[in-house]
Amino acid sequence: MVKFFRTHVLVCAGTGCVASKSIAVKKALEVELAKHHLEDEVQIVATGCNGFCAAGPVMVVYPEGIFYQKLKPEDMPLLVEEHLLNGRPVETFMYKDPLKKQIVPKMHDIAFFGLQELRALRNKGIIDAEKIEDYIARDGYFALAKALNEMTPEQITGEIKESGLRGRGGAGFSTGLKWEFAAQANSTIKYVLCNGDEGDPGAFMDRSILEADPHVVLEGMIIAAKAIAAHQGYIYVRAEYPLAVNRLKIAIAKARDFGLLGKNILDSGFDFDVEIYQGAGAFVCGEETALMTSLEGKRGMPRPRPPFPAHKGLWKKPTILNNVETYANVPPIILNGARWFNSLGTEGSKGTKVFALTGAVNNIGLVEVPMGTTLKTIICDIGGGIPNRRKLKAVQMGGPSGGCIPESLIDTPVDYESITKTGAIMGSGGMVVIDETTCMVNIAKFFLEFTQDESCGKCAPCRIGTKVMLDILKDICEGKGKEGDVETLEDLSVTIKSASLCGLGQTAPNPVLTTIRYFRDEYDAHIKEKICPAHSCVELIKFVVNGEVCKKCGKCVKACPASAIAWEKGQTACIDRDTCVKCKSCITTCPFRAIE
Amino acid sequence: MAKITFEDLKKIKEQYRASTTLREGGARAKVSVHMGTCGIASGARPVLKALVREVEDRDIKDVIVTIAGCAGQCTQEPMATVEIKGEPPVVYGKLNEAKAKEIFAQHIVGGTVLEQYTVEERA
Predict the structure, then answer these.
(1) How many other β-carbons are positioned within 10 Å of the β-carbon of residue A96?
(2) Does residue A125 contact residue A47 with C-beta atoms inside 8 Å?
(3) How many beta-carbon pairs below 8 A join chains A and B?
(4) For chain B: N or C, fewer Cβ within 10 A?
(5) Residue B20's pLDDT band (cuts 50, 70, 90)
(6) Does the CB of B68 have a partner CB in chain A at under 8 Å?
(7) Which residues pair with A196 in a beta bridge?
(8) pLDDT in tens, A266-296
(9) pLDDT-based confidence at residue A258 (cuts at 50, 70, 90)
(10) Is the per-residue pLDDT at B122 higher than 80?
(11) Of the CATH numbers 3.30.70.3270, 3.40.30.10, 3.30.300.30, 1.20.1250.20, which one belongs to the domain with range B6-117?
(12) CB spacing of A62 vs B22 below 8 angstroms
């Protein structure tokens, strides 16, 4: 029999909250519970990522569903005595709405959670990721039982195809079609691979799914294996995700124990097993052919397609590779049907998409919304708007392969087609919010530095082209830009996009192209007037206080580590440029953007 | 452990249904024991423990036993409020372990309100 606890305390043990010391909070909680002899009544559950990482360490207390944030170990005595012993939830640790300035006690009333539609993340923060029973209690492996016992491989592929599910890794190819090609390929040996090589700066969707709900990925993979008649699978996950790897290992061991992996799964006669392969973290290994080369034990480099992996993939055998989030969508589709899945979304993009919302936004974290939700809803409602009374400038989507969507297009619905039209890409789900203090040329430079560094070097357009582009961008940011630089960047982009071997090079110029398209004036200001309108590029800042804008508050003086600012009450501050070390502390601190 | 079948999956799901109900809502009934200082002083904790034990012993999956703050009628403590889905809440007072067990059996499981233990709502 399963022990009954009147209260469940779900402590987030995702990477974000662990980093902000949630394990210490959990330990303090255990000590306090023991002190009040509540350990038989209150159950503590360590969950995967709850999603609201900026508020971490977070905790949810059921049955009330009270959400506590930014907890410290020393908060536990009060919390236990008041809430868990006396039944009085503690307001001090609750979330405060940044716009309405009101305390919101229940998790589902917080806009960040309330406006989301959880499908791929349906188990996040509500189950113990290391307990297979918790997963089964939420219909885990029921889809697998249905697929193995009641469906033919054709029916499985048909259902996935009809659902309209498209690859969540970025390219958005039809998952059903991919499976169909591999199913039709003639071979006794086939492979099912999972791409957990999440590499976009700031993206952590896949890591969170693996940490919070590893079994859903396994279940999705076994269903895929049945659909294409494969008996071996590999999960390629980066070694930089130790918690995800560990949870996966536990999940695989448990699933084997239960006979959900291995021979004769659920007494159906079907065999399938999975192994984890840890990648070293090269960005290019997220590209499918490079990933397979790396899995084969060779240096991770892409190769030309065709032949496509569905015909000749891993060890030249028919192979399907899907992203973590794609697999997480599979079990609910099998269980609830294609129509349930595609009732949500837009014409070409069905279901939901998970985004890692970060940057200049109040509520940073993991967000799952129906396809077709506007950027405005995500940033202003779920994200709670821009902090420090600053203005929204742009949204970067798709990471180094994506682009910047300007504020004027904030009503764009988030679906594959609409985002592609703006010049950005849906990508795997990175969404970085940019405010007026960020220089768009510098953003382009940042992403190009990344791709240039991660370019594997196999093909010349990517290896040399990105280097030349980066040099030009560096010059522009340092005030050494020349007339015609923008045109050169555009020319190079066209060549690199069309001549590169794989997706890395083919998309590398996107951040540059979109910033030129929407923020050409900033490029021109850097090149012609030698100024950086966002006051971000150090070489182009004069470090002079504009007396007309300065409100004489003196905040910059306190911020300056070099004591380079002279100021008296009621006077405009004055920067001594000989002492100034150009650290920009004054610029970041000034609420009025008075330093130019 | 032995390899499981679809039937075993269903059994595991049923065993853990109490947890699922608690975290996701959808309980048929909820009992809140009021845990103000006066409530605890007059014996709310043994009442709570008795109710928790009832759920466990009867292996019931759709009832939530929880705590709430002071109900404001100190003379009636220990108190508990029983809320059955679709029915108005019933407040019980001057409880002890035996009464709590009786209320669990008669009201929560059986559906009959034990009028003799209820508290008149103050106007």
Answers:
(1) 12
(2) yes
(3) 101
(4) C
(5) confident
(6) yes
(7) A237
(8) 999 999 999 999 999 899 999 999 999 999 9
(9) very high
(10) no
(11) 3.40.30.10
(12) yes
